[in-house]
Amino acid sequence: MEKVLLVRYTEIHLKGLNRPYFERALVDNMKRALRGLEPRIEREHGRIYVRNIREADFAEAQERLTRVFGIHSLSPAAAVDKDWETVVSAARELMERRLEGVTGEVTFKVLARRSDKHYFMNSDEINRELGGRMLELFPQLKVDVHSPEIKLSVEIRDMAYVYCEEIPGVNGMPVGTAGKASLLISGGIDSPVAGYMMAKRGLTLSAVHFYSYPYTSERARDKVVELTRLVTKYAGEIRLFLVPFTEIQMTIYEKCPEKETTVLMRRLMMRIAQTIAEREGAQALITGESLGQVASQTLEALACTNDAVTMPVFRPLIGFDKDEIMDVARRIGTYETSILPYEDCCTVFVPKHPVTKPKLAELRASEAAVDWSEMIAKAIENTELMVIK
Ligand code: ATP
Ligand code: MG
Asked: Is 296 in the pocket of ligand 1 (CB under 6 A)?
């Protein structure tokens, strides 16, 4: 008996003529996720089969695939010869394991599908036959066709595939099928979640982080690197640009009105991020902003931030409450790192009374009072690139 992972995918079905492109991207991403486990991946009739995984690596392979965007669900299946008694004995083995330690009555049904139309039984016959055999073998089973606790599936294709477990995937679109965007990542809770959400829609990510050494520490930077690494578990490789921001930040505080400093800082971050993004061939910026969360995220402030760049800015968390963002962060595994108490350049320099309704004309004027071009060029020149895998 061979053990395989049967992979189902979702929205890709809707893509008409582009479907092979999306399927190929998904298979490539699966290969990348399973690197080191020597899988053999086959694509056939709307399904993907992962073969050749060693027994000892099976759980690991399963776990990694639950983080690949585009996968709807997976089932560990026994692939056996189509000979009827062989199918029955594979089903028995699976059921034995499934019922281990279970006491009392358990409901089940058999769900047969057959793409091999020459098989000697049709789906209904398989359901009845196999259901009957299971009832004989396991007295605690009872048939319930509407909401069974166990669905015993049998697919008759090139071989017979038997399984009774369906593990949910993360859904979404394969990373790399929607273009490239650059994530502004801080050490907080929100931005890693924002990156996750846009990668889920198929974007390849790069990331930009601004640090203000010595006001922010080496450890605050390490935290951002670690958060980026956690996002790569879903998004694949991320090129992280670390931009030294101290000079610009100090200049803002020395030369600009205190209450405007936060929004001015955000405008300058956006401008630099856009320049880096353009060089990377990225077509959009992503931030973790959520409407009304802080003074710099009122509608007026967001409009002023947007005004600094021409690229589309994606804010996938715009309508999320903090609680909802935290739930996603916990689910994807970034939360614990995000709450480590290291200072961020935004928190070090917060003004006492920030404007909540900045006027664009006034901000533009404050910004125009300083010549930023050289400072920006220097920051970009001294930007460090880390490729995070
Ligand atoms: P987060 O959890 O992302 O830190 P936040 O609620 O603290 O969010 P702000 O500090 O106002 O929000 O920042 C808003 C957004 O600006 C962040 O989500 C992030 O996209 C970007 N950002 C903030 N600080 C930095 C930074 N130092 N480097 C890069 N991007 C940043
Ligand atoms: Mg922040």
From this structure: yes
Please give the distance, rounded to the nearest whole angstrom, from the Cα atom of residue 185 to the centre of ligand 1.
6
Same-domain check for residues 156 and 299: no
* Pairing outcome for strands 71-80 and 106-114: unpaired
In angstroms, the CA 314 to CA 321 distance is 17
Find the mean pLDDT for residues 86-111: 95
Ligand 1 binding pocket includes 289 (Cβ within 6 Å): yes
Mutate to test the pocket of ligand 1, among 190, 216, 274 (most ligand atoms within 8 A of CB): 190
Q: How confident is the model at residue 345 (pLDDT cuts 50, 70, 90)?
A: low
What one-letter code names the amino acid at 63? E
Same domain, residue pair 231 and 134: no
Whole-angstrom Cα distance, residue 24 to residue 282?
A: 22
Answer yes or no: do 200 and 100 share one domain. Answer: no
pLDDT on residue 11: 65
Q: Structure pTM?
A: 0.92
Q: Are 164 and 188 members of one domain?
A: no
Task: Tell me the angle at which helices 373-381 and 246-255 cross, rounded to the nearest 10 degrees.
Answer: 160
Please choose, from the candidates 204, 208, 255, the residue with its C-alpha nearest in 3D space to the C-alpha of residue 234: 204
Cα–Cα distance for residue pair 44/7, rounded to 1 Å:
11
Helix (H) or strand (E) holding 127: helix 123-137
**What is the whole-number distance in angstroms between the Cα of residue 174 and the centre of ligand 1?**
26
Question: Region 135-159: what's the mean pLDDT?
Answer: 96
How many whole angstroms separate alpha carbon 330 and alpha carbon 193?
Answer: 10
Could you tell me the distance, in angstroms and rounded to a whole number, from the CA of residue 229 to the centre of ligand 2?
Answer: 18
